[in-house]
Design goal:
single chain, Gliding motility-associated-like protein, Cu-Rt/internalin_Ig-like, PKD_dom, Immunoglobulin-like, five-stranded antiparallel β-sheet, Methylamine Dehydrogenase, Chain H, mainly beta
């Protein structure tokens, strides 16, 4: 898994310089005067008329380390490499008549940005309509506008003594470690040195006093030697009426910005015939010789002025006496001096001869005048002819020595706030200006090194690592060091959640329940959950905090701290399956025996047996389980535990004792004589098999017989007998005090369920025509006959329609069938009581009266009869009922 750690980069620079580098291609392009220019990129100066500035004095330009033009300025406008005004490149507040109107410096430790420092012209020339502007600086970012640059900040003031002031003089000097610069100006008797480092421009200058008070007429150059140890200042005037001026030399402390050891090479002297005005200043490439241009104006203005070049040997015990004057020609070359890439010093003659404007050149500026040998510097007054293109007075102002190393980590300057995490590959690169690099050595502070120009490296341990970049440039060693502080990752851990499920069952995992395990220190981290490691690394597709699954799944957890550093950890959602377990139940065993109980479950499971359903302590662990001796019904519970600790539900098994019960039967114990008796059963009602003695039931004779059943031996080896006594009885006739015959709706008042002779039974009612029967059925266990009672009724209707069925209403059939009945007379009446007819026992009515058919209706009859009882008694009776004639 890739781990990421926080990188907080700070820097501490140390530079160790062992030799001076002379490759200064940053000064390859000069633009000055009125569209005048020089190109030194080929090694030989070539006139370049593409420049767009039109200035009298100061300008500045900057090129890259290969000599490619980047941009240039006159202190008011900034032009890019295409000679168009840079984006936001107007409105700077230098002045075309300021000696050092502008100077361009690379921003320390930055590959793309540059400072443009500007300074106002002398106070006497500041127009009345605007205030004095003093020293200001601007910032250009060359990474913008497609590499053509943009001015991103403008006109930031650097007050002198809290007041916006200062004019004309501006020098830029590399500091002692070549990690920054000093911007130096002179104002009203003091030098002001502003330090420029990777942290910015200090607004608190180092102030060094001098004996020279410039006043308001303070034009003329302030220049540093190439090695930065010396500083020279020329004073000039801007009007012919100006006074005699001075030329001074100083020592400069590149480490502190202090200016000291003032030496007046010329001080004002009103006793002379000429006023001396010192404008151009330059040092030889070896920093030993000082050159100055001098204009000598006579107090008597009828005398011609004289222009000279003065040389001083700064290594001489008496510098003043080492002065050598040359350049005495008919050209007054009182303009600027500037050291070129070719090691020559160029002078702006500021003279328009008939054939144009020229730059002169000192061919051997490292050559001091030798009084012994007569060796002198060689001066070519008309080295470059610009024709009608005015060269003005000034030449570009440059930094005394260009060398810049700017280190980037992942494309950002180490001066910017940067947060990185280990595991993330860091890209180290640098840009530099000044000289050709012969070798590179990166030391990463943990024992690892690289000789690649732009290596990639990742740190795996926390702590402060001091990184050193060593460059060998033109034989000179440059060392940059900076510290990287690596802070460890969030203190987080892998985590897991476990759940026991039945196969196929799903569970909704609450992922937040693992936060305490993932983040035990409860750090203020942002935590998200992802389905893949790639999604977690890229912070894509975060999941909700509930995840439903039926199988083991890995969730990838991204833990990100407040600085954006993250680690990815695993949250394992582990699903263990609950084992299944079963056992047959109940199991019958013989009393006094043990039982071997075998549960069905996975072979990897642990099986526990319990004697109570909710018992926490098993009585046995293993499978099978041998029970103790069983003498009564006993129940056990069994569970299975998987290797992961998942516990099944408990299965129940009951051990039942093989019963000692005797066989029993459902066999009738009373039979009637000669009644059919079924075969005796070979198994009892409770399933016990055996044999009978006697082997069958004999109903041929009356009396009681004992039948014995002997069971076969059971599983426990026991056998049992059972006896049944079966009685065969004679047939009996039930006796009741009830007549067996009733007539004309008379019925017995009671039907007893037990006969007089003790026979039990029940009565059932049935019909057959106009006869109703009551039949007594004896119980099946009784050997008895049936007993019948008949209720003889009369016909309720007749239908005299000559169909041969019920054509006549008559009681003759009853009279003929029952001798106990003696019908005397029957009378028929209509419903009004009118006698319609009468007849005897065997007569009848055909439904007519006097030969006419009577209508369908209800009619009445009167029956007179005698009933003979079973005892022979005769009872006279009379019955009046209705009947129905139907047509």
């Amino acid at each position: 898994m890739k781990q990421n750690f926080l990188l907080i980069i700070s820097f501490i620079f140390g530079v160790y310089i062992h030799a001076q580098n002379n490759g200064q291609m940053q000064t390859a392009h000069w633009y000055f005067g009125d569209h005048a220019g020089l190109d030194f990129s080929s090694g030989t100066p070539v006139i370049d008329t593409n420049g767009q500035i039109a200035t009298i004095e100061g300008s500045s330009s900057i090129s890259d380390e290969q000599g490619n033009l980047l941009f240039y300025t006159d202190g008011r406008r900034v032009y890019d490499s295409t000679h168009n005004i840079m984006l936001n490149g107007t409105g700077l507040r230098g002045d075309r008549s300021s000696t050092s109107s502008a100077v361009i410096l690379p921003v320390p430790d930055d590959c793309h940005r540059y400072y443009i420092f500007t300074i106002d012209l002398d106070a006497s020339k500041v127009p009345s309509w605007r205030p004095q502007r003093g020293i200001e600086y601007n910032i250009v970012d060359m990474s913008l506008n497609g590499g053509l640059g943009e001015v991103v900040q403008k006109n930031i003031s650097l007050p002198l003594n809290g007041i916006i002031q200062g004019y004309e003089k501006l020098a830029a000097i590399s500091n002692a470690t070549k990690t920054g610069y000093w911007i130096v100006t002179h104002f009203q008797g003091d030098f002001y040195a502003f330090e420029v480092t990777s942290t910015g421009v200090s607004t608190t200058p180092v102030i060094s006093p001098s004996s020279i008070y410039g006043g308001v007429e303070n034009i003329g150059y302030l220049k540093a030697s190439p090695d930065g140890t010396k500083l020279a200042m020329g004073m000039s005037f801007s009007v012919p009426s100006g006074t005699d001026k001075s030329l001074s030399l100083y020592s400069f402390n590149k480490a502190t910005g202090n200016i000291h050891n003032e030496q007046l090479l010329y001080s004002p002297n009103t006793s002379q015939d000429y006023k001396h005005h010192f404008y151009g200043i330059e040092f030889s490439p070896n920093s030993n010789l000082l050159y100055a241009t001098v204009r000598k104006l006579p107090y008597d203005q009828t005398v011609d002025k004289i222009c000279e070049i003065w040389q001083f040997n700064t290594n001489s015990p008496n510098i003043n006496t080492s002065k050598y004057i040359f350049g005495l020609e008919n050209i007054c070359y009182g303009g600027a001096l500037q050291l070129g890439l070719d090691g020559k010093i160029y002078i702006n003659t500021h003279t328009n001869q008939a054939n144009g404007y020229y730059l002169g050149r000192i061919e051997n500026p490292n050559t001091a005048y030798n009084t012994t040998t007569g060796e002198t510097p060689i001066f070519t007054p008309e080295y470059l002819n610009f024709g009608n293109t005015s060269t003005g007075v000034g030449l570009p102002t440059f930094l005394n020595h260009y060398f810049r190393i700017a280190i980037n980590v992942n494309g950002l300057s180490i001066q910017e706030d940067q947060l990185y995490c280990t595991g993330e590959l860091l890209s180290f690169d640098f840009c530099h200006q000044g000289g050709e690099i012969q070798s590179v050595l990166w030391e990463f502070g943990d024992g690892s090194t690289s000789t690649e120009f732009y290596p990639q490296y990742a740190y795996n341990t926390a702590g402060v690592h001091s990184i050193t970049l060593t460059l060998m440039v033109d034989g000179e060693e440059f060392i940059r060091t900076f510290d990287i502080t690596i802070t460890g990752p969030p203190e987080v851990s892998n985590a897991e959640q476990e759940i026991c499920l039945y196969e196929g069952e799903e569970h909704a995992f609450n992922l937040t329940e693992s936060l305490a395990d993932i983040n035990p220190s409860n750090g203020n981290h942002q935590i998200s959950f992802h389905l893949t490691q790639e999604e977690a690394n890229n912070n894509n597709n975060p999941q909700p905090t509930t995840y439903t699954s039926n199988q083991t799944t890995t969730i990838w957890v991204r833990v990100e701290d407040q600085q954006g550093c993250f680690v990815v950890r695993e949250l394992d959602l582990i699903v263990y399956f609950i084992p299944t377990i079963s056992i047959a139940s109940p199991i019958n065993i013989c009393s006094g025996n043990t039982a071997t109980l075998q549960a069905e479950t996975e072979t990897t499971s642990t099986v526990n047996w319990y004697d109570h359903e909710n018992s926490a302590t098993p009585i046995y662990t293993g499978n099978p389980f041998e029970s103790p001796i069983i003498t009564q019904e006993t129940t056990y519970w069994v569970e299975a535990i998987s290797p992961e600790g998942c516990i099944s539900e408990r299965a129940k098994v009951t051990l039942t004792i093989e019963t000692e019960e005797k066989p029993y039967f459902d066999i009738p114990t009373i039979y009637c004589i000669n009644e059919y008796a079924p075969p005796l059963p070979q198994k009892s009602m409770n399933g016990i098999a055996g044999t009978w003695s006697p082997s069958f039931i004999n109903t041929a004779t009356t009396g009681s017989t004992t039948y014995t059943f002997s069971s076969l031996p059971n599983a426990c080896g026991n056998s049992y007998t059972s006896q049944i006594e079966i009685t065969v009885e004679d047939i009996k006739v039930p006796e009741f005090d009830i007549p067996t015959l009733y007539f004309f709706n008379e019925e017995p008042s009671e039907l007893p369920l037990i006969s007089k002779n003790g026979i039990k039974g029940y009565w059932e009612e049935s019909f057959n025509g106009h006869i109703k029967y009551y039949t007594f059925y004896p119980d099946e266990s009784s050997c008895a006959e049936y007993f019948n009672v008949q209720i003889i009724s009369y016909p309720k209707f007749f239908t005299p329609n000559n169909d041969g069925i019920n054509d006549t209403w008559s009681l003759a059939d009853i009279q003929l069938k029952y001798k106990e009945l003696n019908i005397k007379h029957v009378s028929i009446f209509d419903r009004f009581g009118k006698l319609l007819t009468g007849f005897g026992a065997y007569g009848g009515w055909d439904g007519t009266y006097n030969g006419k058919q009577m209508p369908a209706n209800d009619y009445w009859f009167k029956l007179e009869y005698t009933l003979t009882t079973p005892d022979g008694d005769k009872i006279e009776k009379q019955l009046i009922k209705n009947l129905t004639l139907r047509r």
